Amino acid sequence: MDYMIKSVEIILDYIIKEENNIIRANKIEINIKGIKLYETYYAPRSLWALEWRIKMRKITFFASVIFFLIIISIICTGSWKNISLAKDKTENIDVDIKEYVQRDLFNKLDGVKKDGKEEKHEYVAVERSEKTLTGSATQESDRKANDNALFIGDSRTVGIAEYAGIKNADFYANVGLSVYNVFKEKANVKGRGRIGIDKMLTSKEYGKVYIMIGINELGYNFKKTVEKYEAFISYISKKQPYAKIIIQSNLHVTKERARGDKIINNKMINRYNATISKLANDETIFYIDANKVFDDKEGNLAAKLTYDGVHILAKYYKKWGEWIVKETSHL
Asked: Which of 64, 109, 134, 270 is packed most tightly, with the most Cβ within 10 A?
């Protein structure tokens, strides 16, 4: 009898916990001459079965929640990868400069390929000879026009600083530099150490300021990128009110590099170049386009001039430097 009473108490307890879930029970009454002597209830199933069913419901519920969270996590992770892909493609365009300089240097010394395959070399540190920075009297005269110039840019500007032979100019260049990080990151500047762009522009008065950034921004929102670029030009104008600002086009990539890529391709680069060129007023702000120097007949970066489809080989930077100086010598 006591067992039955305990069973009833447990069953009623489960009924309360289960809220709207109804657990059936049978009623037993013992009457003698119309007088109710005893009344109790019993479950048609054993108490153990009842407890097991409730535990399974809880286990099933928690398993469903965990499965749902896993599905949501997979979906979110996939979406994040898709969002990050565009940025990754552009942020990684500027390859590690040590590898870039190393490979360019050996290509310059030993040729690009032998038997259709690149040769592997050990890294060798080589200082630039001052002889590479000298030229004809005319070229020297042209270079003097940039004695008071500042070049701002990404890894391609790093290449100009290393190989173009433009003497006495300052270079504020970083691998991966963009309008999104130009105010956040610092650059190593010869004779000044590691400084920020604000200090760079306020510590000296320049006659010309060259800007070449954009390849690393192609994966971002186009309108926002252009707005930031325009704001950066305005910022330079305020910091250097007497300087001529020269906007440089972003070089094209090779046809092979652009094939099948929705972000890093010449259609996107042309769109960006065309937009920033409109910022020039031919009075204080100018635009120059070096693509005509390095393009093939189809309007792509000539494959023979590059090893990665993006950066030109070291030996061609001197030609680029001479073109920049001559193109802007009258300014």
From this structure: 270
